[in-house]
């Protein structure tokens, strides 16, 4: 009787032990297996500006990775606001580097381990050393590499070398300039100063996003010969007053038809002919052209204003969701999205992988500045250019090589923001 | 039991307490918080508890503030005049010229139909209509009224006020129509018997009796226009500003304390305006 009991209990103990061991193995060694099964239940919430928050990306993620990506597209200021004040409302932040400079110190984003990023070595030099080519000069303003790295996993500072911990994983960048309606202007436009040319009174527009708009204004002021800034990206109070003063005067004289805040507003202003010259973003040009209306992203003598964006991970993310986020970012850099964005006129931060997802003709047109051999289509299938046409501004090196400033957050940002508010209300 | 009944004050307090609690929690507390935050300090990404007058100093120190408040009053006043004229006329027609109740109700419902769609849609639909190459301009050109497209139709104060009038006239029609329907028809007959003409009846009988309705409509329109920001932003092409836009710009730029300070000043202004209006008319007659 006792013997039996002993047997049973011994067997029971053994069984229990085995189960515990198996469970332990399952939960540690077997993690990827469980992960593979559960990943379909993961939902990542991403938000960002309309430029790269595309439903096509969410569809492709579901197809390739199996989990769900929820997208929210907001205007730039709302994006900043959400990144700074509502850390629990998102998992992935698709933001610009200047926004990162504003919100990083709030601690709502976590640093990312570059050793987990498969294509880290292929990321363009602009985002790592700051140099496009080994010899190029770094433009003024908040250049991405200056706010791209932090000191460690819990860093809230920025470091100037490749520390292995990134604040944002770069995905996208471009060189911005003025958009024009060549059919309504009827003469060449070569300088930023044309934005305030009285010839376009009541037909000009500028964007109402302070960190970007102030840089466009600075380009105009320098081009007019009114003032040359020691550093456009970091103005003094006097310089801010001067810049906004000039534009307030122009506004009162009726130079501007409207200001725009979101990308679709700029498209409507241009397509309807309300405005013939304005600050504009690349896909907005694409959208106007897709309606069959001529629109040029005019390269200007003084050079371009540039910006870069990337993906950040919410500080609240951990475990399975964090793994999924890394998986997503690796997928993002693996080429499909890059190809998609390049076909909209942006540059992918990892051009090598994007190239594999574009035809030779597309690559030649968008990246190398060659004449198109056949029709160039947008990702949605609208015709953007025909055979023989060349991209406005030419090749990647021509365009990014002529960047003179980045969208910026200045030391006097607080002051600038208030003055900007006054300019809009004036 | 008797004691409890005697203590009618206590019962009274108990009876108002649910409402008092709701008002306290959802009205007084939020406003109190806004007052508190208006004294705080803001950096680019955070707000810091403090007690300083900087936000108010900046607000009152900036000439733009006065322009913006002036603009807000201008919009409110012009919109009020327009909505009052249109609203009164519509209500008068419905109440006194339409004889059968069925038709009155049918036509009244007709007035409300545009309000079944969203505010924003009704507002934005003006943009393609008024634009440089819009329907209004092309029609005027084809009629030969003008040679060049008229610029001030869109992205101007005209466009802002047009949209306001379009959006808020119903808020004037409803209360005025309501008070007019309560006017005893025999009063009008008596006035006529006493020899008053149409204008005299309107001026001496109908307008005094509809004053509470006009006042309620006025409160609606004035508070809606003074608190609005999106109509001003869209219809002026972001070029004009009222106080609401000042606040929304501040919020967009994460300047919550400064936005709170502006909101408090706006709240006080609106309360003053309404307080003054209520001195002229006793709207309790209406209720």
Automatic annotation (TrEMBL), chain A:
Pfam entry (one): SBP_bac_8
Gene3D superfamilies (alphabetical): Periplasmic binding protein-like II
Keywords, comma-separated and alphabetical: Signal
Membrane-traversing stretches: none
Signal peptide location: 1-24
PANTHER family with a match to the protein in the record: SPERMIDINE/PUTRESCINE-BINDING PERIPLASMIC PROTEIN, SPERMIDINE_PUTRESCINE-BINDING PERIPLASMIC PROTEIN
Protein name according to UniProt: Bacterial extracellular solute-binding protein
TrEMBL record, chain B:
Location (main, coarse): membrane
Membrane topology: Multi-pass membrane protein
ABC transmembrane type-1 domain: residues covered: 69-277
DNA damage in keyword set: no
Record's subcellular location: Cell membrane
Alphabetical keyword list: Cell membrane, Membrane, Transmembrane, Transmembrane helix, Transport
GO cellular component labels: plasma membrane
Gene3D superfamilies assigned to the protein according to its UniProt record, in alphabetical order: MetI-like
Keyword Nucleotide-binding annotated: no
InterPro entries hit by this protein: MetI-like (IPR000515), MetI-like_sf (IPR035906)
GO biological-process terms attached to the record: transmembrane transport
Transmembrane segments: 12-41, 77-95, 101-117, 152-177, 256-281
PANTHER family linked to this entry: INNER MEMBRANE ABC TRANSPORTER PERMEASE PROTEIN YDCU-RELATED, INNER MEMBRANE ABC TRANSPORTER PERMEASE PROTEIN YDCU-RELATED-RELATED
The family this protein is said to belong to: Belongs to the binding-protein-dependent transport system permease family. CysTW subfamily.
Record-given protein name: Putrescine transport system permease protein PotH
